[in-house]
Specification:
single chain; 249 residues; alpha/beta; 3-stranded mixed β-sheet; 3-stranded parallel β-sheet; 6 strands
Length: 249
């Protein structure tokens, strides 16, 4: 869903400067060129961040995110993104909290983007969200102090960056962590959770239900291979979940 938000921001920038539509990485975003976006180097990504994020205050960005969620709908499923939290995930979070656990979100997405909806969607407060972030700077703002976003990445909360982000925010290893088969981005987090003096519980969700949601696999099956090697619990959405989304979606 953050990709859809970024697309909206790039479109707004192109309205201001039509020449951007012919330049990368803007052209790739507008055309949905996932392969090219995945292969972009840091300078290209920084140009994209600079065009859509740099100079905005945190409050301005939060307002834009909230406005996006008020109107945006998933292009295939046709419903608001806030209605697409998985029912088993919500049930598990509720069960854990009822039994004395503290629940966190750790995602490769932007932390400020997720914090705007984490409480309403997952009942997880903003301070318990870990994600990728841009550097910020303090601006006195002529007597109105604000934090401004910069076009520089501060932390990438993906792959090996996830355990780092968890330690920086929580200060201890999780006793339970759940990840997804998609890009291999959760492997290190699950390894970090499972392999400790008192082994934690590592859960991997396999998105294999093309009928009710989507079916996608990693080209090298890295996450499933790591699960077999590490003794993680693998859940099939197709075989193990009675329902994908909450009732009344």
């Amino acid at each position: 869903m953050q990709g859809a938000f970024l697309l909206e921001q790039v479109r707004e920038r192109v309205k201001e400067d039509a020449s951007l539509a012919k330049r990368q990485p803007f052209k790739a975003v507008l055309e949905g060129d996932v392969a090219l976006l995945s292969a972009m180097d840091e300078p290209q990504l920084m140009e994209l961040f600079a065009a859509t994020h740099a100079g905005k205050t945190q409050d301005e960005f939060a307002r834009e995110v909230r406005a996006f969620f008020q109107t945006a709908r998933h292009p295939k499923l046709g419903v608001p993104y806030t209605q697409l939290a998985y029912a088993p995930m919500l049930e598990l979070l509720q069960y854990l909290r009822a039994n004395g656990f503290q629940t966190w979100i750790s995602s490769g997405g932007g932390v400020d983007f997720m914090r705007a909806v984490s409480e309403d969607t997952y009942d997880i407060p903003p301070q318990q969200v870990i994600g990728s972030s841009l550097k910020e700077k303090f601006d006195e703002g002529n007597g109105n102090p604000v934090l401004r976003r910069e076009a520089r990445v501060d932390h990438l909360n993906d792959k090996a960056g996830k355990p780092v982000g968890i330690d920086q925010h929580i200060g201890r290893r999780p006793v339970f962590a759940a990840g997804n088969v998609r890009s291999g981005g959760d492997i290190q987090m699950l390894q970090y959770t499972k392999e400790q003096p008192h082994p934690g519980f590592a859960l991997l969700i396999n998105h294999d239900d093309a009928e009710r949601e989507f079916a996608y696999a990693e080209k090298n099956d890295a996450s499933l291979k790591a699960a077999r090697q590490g003794g993680w619990t693998v859940v099939s959405m197709r075989q193990d979940w009675k329902r994908i989304f909450p009732e009344g979606r």
